[in-house]
Amino acid sequence: MARKVTSRHVWMSTAAAWLFGFLIFLPILWMFLASFKSELDAFAMPPKFLFFHWTTENYATVQQRSDYVHHALNSIIIAGGSTLIAMLIAVPAAWSMAFSPTKRTKDVLLWMLSTKMMPPVGVLVPIYLVYRDFGLLDSRAGLVLILCLGNLPIVIWMLFTYFKEIPKDILEAARMDGATIGRELVYVLTPMAIPGLASTLLLNFILAWNEAFWTLNLSTLEAAPLTVFIASYSSPEGLFWAKLSAASTLAIAPIIILGWFTQRQLVRGLTFGAVK
Amino acid sequence: MEPLGRQEAAMTTQQVIATQQTQVVATEQTQVLGRALLSPAVVLLFIWMIVPLAMTIYFSTLHYTLMDSENWSFVGLENFRYFLTDPAFLTSLQNTLVLVGSVLAITILLGTPLALLLDQPVIGRSVVRLMVIAPFFVMPTVSALVWKNLLMHPVSGLFAWIANLFGLTPIDWFNDAPMLAVILIVAWQWLPFATLILLTALQSQDEEQKEAAEMDGASALSTFIYLTLPHLARPITVVVLIETIFLLTVFAEIFVTTGGGPGLQTTNIAFLIYSQALIQFDVGNASAGGLVAVVIANIVAFFLVRIIGRNLEV
User: Fold this and answer.
1) Does A153 lie at the interface with B, CB-CB under 8 angstroms?
2) How many CB atoms lie under 10 A from the CB of residue B47?
3) Separation CA B178–CA A102 (nearest Å)
4) Does any domain span residue B270?
5) Which of A53-57, B41-45, B186-190, B234-238: highest mean pLDDT?
6) Is the CB of residue A55 less than 8 Å away from at least one CB of chain B?
7) Which of B150, B253, B305 is most worth mutating to test chain A (most A CB atoms within 10 A of its CB)?
């Protein structure tokens, strides 16, 4: 802080910021607390805040229902698989656009971006029918494919902006020293690109993990990831708040922690360089 | 061709010529390779963009339901006439606009002061920022169900308890104000996005300019109106456009809380198309609706792509 600030100013803004931060975080905190209550305490009115009988039985129940593990595995496979495949396709594409741009590169980039703006519901019917005819409904492969295509434009864009930041002088120096393109890629570019690759991987894993249009429409049981599993708690007869909370906590905790590491990349990945 | 760097100045002419030649070779090689590396992505995205869309257009001209899939016939623009004059379409269009507009208003009107607050000297700012960002990483089905049950339940929810504290009658959210309930859930999910982007933009604001204004005796309010707001105009536009693209197709939150009801009260266009396709199995009509959704999204996308393109250096 370059400007002089009074301590009263600091205390006021601190108090206000913490109050708003707490209010925004409250639903997550409340869910977290409910996951340690008995079903009866979870419904209790007036609500029990901290002084209730803490129990981990909900987590045990959720774990015992082996289908939880099954859906968690599906989430990992679908989010991980779609992200990795998208990276394999996107790295060469972004590399080529960042390091040997042509007159059309800008148009290609903007066109790729525009494919992301297609509302998924606009192509729900044909995708559903094609998937039905090819036996891809409720299959992990089908979800990997569609999430991979859906996120590909974001992956390419993020990688492009990272590759763009690698100074070209270094490449020229390597070329002058007689490095082939292959060596250039392995020894010069890769080490400099790793941070960008890692954050792209992370952010797109998160986006795929939380995707809830295609997963809800194209999977029911076998391939259903956690988004769909949690949705099954929406039926009125299945209303177990404490268990819903425990399952939800397990489903979102790893992603929130991963997400906190990607704050900066979030802005970059989702605004396509329009805000810096 | 890149202009030659400083190193070259020290070289002999021969070396320079030799270097230039290798660079030309390298560049040609690179361009061929570049095209080869780019093409898989281009081809895949091209297929992904064209094929389903072409199929949607084709289906939209058919009378075709999955209940009776043998009997299909070409009906021209009949589905569009039906979809666009269906009272459900007008209702869901209206709901979509209310949902998008309200969430935009809430996230911008709360996100801007919140970003300004987080830009102040705050003790433990990084922790506050983590708490503010967290909702964005919660999967839509979880946030919808947690809000619907743990917070908004008319008897045992946290909000009901707060209402009782103040001697008010708790609101039965999903019966009396279902759209408002959906709006609050979605706004909670997108508030972090708006805040984070506006905060990022604020942090790139010229501090010296602000200091100079303060030294000239400008009040905090006029500094905000004449310096900060214009600086935020572009990021706000970007937030509005990006959020609009995603908000036009809100689906999971409606799917797990209200199922579009009661009646059509929370049915937006995305949910209407879904129910025509996968509940009523009316392929032709749902496809016509899908194309309407594509057209609406493209109007927004047009402006967004222009703004991003203006900022893009290749």
Assistant:
1) yes
2) 11
3) 52
4) yes
5) B186-190
6) no
7) B150
Are both B150 and B208 inside the same structural domain? Answer: yes
pLDDT value, residue A209: 93
Residues of A in contact with B141 (CB under 8 A): 212, 216, 227-228, 230-231, 234
User: What is this structure's pTM?
Assistant: 0.85
Find the CATH number of the domain harbouring A147. 1.10.3720.10
Domain extent at residue A235: 63-270
B95 and B130 assigned to the same domain? yes
- Residue B153 tokens, joined: 């339940």
Locate A170 and state its tokens.
Answer: 């270094």
Beta bridge partners of B73: B63
Q: pLDDT by residue (tens digit) across B193-230?
A: 999 999 988 888 777 877 888 788 878 888 888 888 88
Strand partners, B65: B282
In a domain, A198, yes or no: yes
B66 in a structural domain: no
Pair B47, B93 in one domain: no
Count, residues in chain A: 276
Q: What is the ipTM of this complex?
A: 0.86
Q: At which residue do the structure tokens 């297609």 appear?
A: A118
Q: Range of B260's domain?
A: 78-312
Query: Tens of pLDDT along A107-119?
Result: 888 888 888 888 8
* Structure-block tokens of residue A24: 């925004």
Which residue of chain A comes nearest to B235, CA vs CA?
A275
With an 8 Å Cβ cutoff, are B117 and A13 in contact? yes
Overall domain count for chain B? 2
Q: Is the pLDDT of residue B246 over 90?
A: no
pLDDT value of residue B9: 47
